[in-house]
Amino acid sequence: MGYDYDDQNIFAKILRGEIPNDTVYEDDFALAFRDIQPQAPDHVLVIPKGPYVNQDHFAAEATDAEIVGFTRAIGKVCAAMGVTPGAGGMGYRMIANAGEAGVQEVPHLHVHILSGRMLGRMVKRFD
Ligand code: 5GP
């Protein structure tokens, strides 16, 4: 399966420093910054530094080091936000949208970390 990464997407521009961001955390593998249109009092996006379209692309083609580094970075972002449940935080929701049904708008893998209020059920029921 081929993945066509568009290096002109907005998060690629943020990674290159062409567009400013409100950074929460950064290391060799990931950049975390506040969402420009927050859906909760705390809404942070975590993106890998490599050029991956979505989680499927990342799982298929990222190196083991990138996958481990990104996963650990998400934990560090939650700690930096003070939301880690095992460390006295109130908890959070982690969302990664992919493709059409997931309504992914920016084609660079990103994980949303939402917290700061009770978030309710995961998605609306569709009876
Ligand atoms: P998606 O729908 O792709 O899962 O989420 C994309 C997210 O990126 C949205 O929540 C949107 O508010 C956020 N976003 C889009 N453009 C920018 C930007 O230029 N800066 C920041 N910080 N967030 C952005």
According to DSSP, the number of beta strands is 5
pLDDT averaged over residues: 96
Largest sheet: 5 strands, antiparallel
Main structural class: alpha+beta
Model description:
This protein has 127 residues and is an alpha+beta fold. It has a domain at 1-80: HIT-like (HIT family, subunit A). It contains 4 helices and 5 strands. It has helices at 10-15, 55-61, 64-81, 99-102; strands spanning 23-26, 30-34, 42-48, 93-95, 111-115. It has a 5-stranded antiparallel β-sheet with strand order 1-2-3-5-4. The radius of gyration is 15 Å and the shape is globular. The mean pLDDT is 96. The structure holds guanosine-5'-monophosphate (5GP). The site of guanosine-5'-monophosphate (5GP) has 14 residues, from strand 2.
Summarize the model shown.
The protein has 127 residues and is of the alpha+beta class. It contains 4 helices and 5 strands.
What topology emerges from the helices and strands here?
Elements (H helix, E strand, L loop, with lengths): L9 H6 L7 E4 L3 E5 L7 E7 L6 H7 L2 H18 L11 E3 L3 H4 L8 E5 L12
Antiparallel strand pairs: 1-2, 2-3, 3-5, 4-5
The structure holds guanosine-5'-monophosphate.
The site of guanosine-5'-monophosphate has 14 residues, from β2.
Feature tags:
five-stranded antiparallel sheet, HIT family, subunit A, globular, 127 residues, 19% strand, binds guanosine-5'-monophosphate, 5 strands, alpha+beta
